[in-house]
Amino acid sequence: xxxxxxxxxxxxxxxxxxxxxxxxxxxxxxxxxxxxxxxxxxxxxxxxxxxxxxxxxxxxxxxxxxxxxxxxxxxxxxxxxxxxxxxxxxxxxxxxxxxxxxxxxxxxxxxxxxxxxxxxxxxxxxxxxxxxxxxxxxxxxxxxxxxxxxxxxxxxxxxxxxxxxxxxxxxxxxxxxxxxxxxxxxxxxxxxxxxxxxxxxxxxxxxxxxxxxxxxxxxxxxxxxxxxxxxxxxxxxxxxxxxxxxxxxxxxxxxxxxxxxxxxxxxxxxxxxxxxxxxxxxxxxxxxxxxxxxxxxxxxxxxxx
Length: 305
Fold this sequence. Notes:
- By secondary structure, the protein is α/β, with parallel strands linked by helices.
- The chain contains 9 helices and 13 strands.
- It has 2 domains: 5-60, no CATH class; 66-304, no CATH class.
- The chain has helices spanning 5-17, 42-60, 62-82, 153-165, 178-186, 204-211, 229-252, 254-261, 267-279, and strands at residues 21-24, 34-37, 88-90, 92-93, 107-108, 113-114, 117-118, 127-131, 135-142, 168-173, 190-193, 197-199, 221-223.
- The strands form 5 sheets. The protein has a 5-stranded mixed β-sheet with strand order 3-8-9-10-11, sandwiched between helices. A two-stranded antiparallel ribbon has the order 1-2. Strands 4-5 form a two-stranded antiparallel ribbon.
- The longest helix has 24 residues, at 229-252.
């Protein structure tokens, strides 16, 4: 089993401090950090970068990243079309049968308003679904390599939008770190891990290169926008079953979620207050005994480089 990145990062930093592992920032891959052993011959490093960099650069191109994001959204739409609980859901693609996935499809986004509530700005959720008793839920899809930590921008944005519309937040992503689930599930947020990154069928050759063990090693890549059995099960059965309970949690912890989402409360205090409220302890007591695994100390994307 793979170790969560929040455990790998301290180990990597220790190897760096002992000068056993050397960081490298290739000029052709700005913003990324690559590592090699201290005694790796320069010729070997050059050869590895020559093989890996073109694949990495192809994954960073904006047109590809936009189509990548749509791939998971389309899979979720197809799963929603197969379920029967949510008679009302908003968010669709208008031209799936008009061309292949080498081009962007036309997305019909959910409205930014529900009744008198307004997300504000040019922001939308990926999907809105209405449960017969729990009301509305907002779904966000994140088809990225990075693990979803509780203080990541994508998570904060989901909370902010769902709080504005008073809808239960639902996050579907490749990997969700343990502390994200422990803290935010308590507050009513619903999660589903796909365990795969979905690539467009048009990019099957790039997918093969990226997941090859001698290249980037992204072994969990899957091509196509059809939902697998796990995603169908989540949308059809698990999500409808847990929404009523999570609606109650969301209402109970709304005040803490709001102060965390608007930036007025740091994550560590937020996590401590959630833990204390859950355990019936005075929330204004000292925050020093927060459990270490509830403190996200990873560098975003670090586990993938």
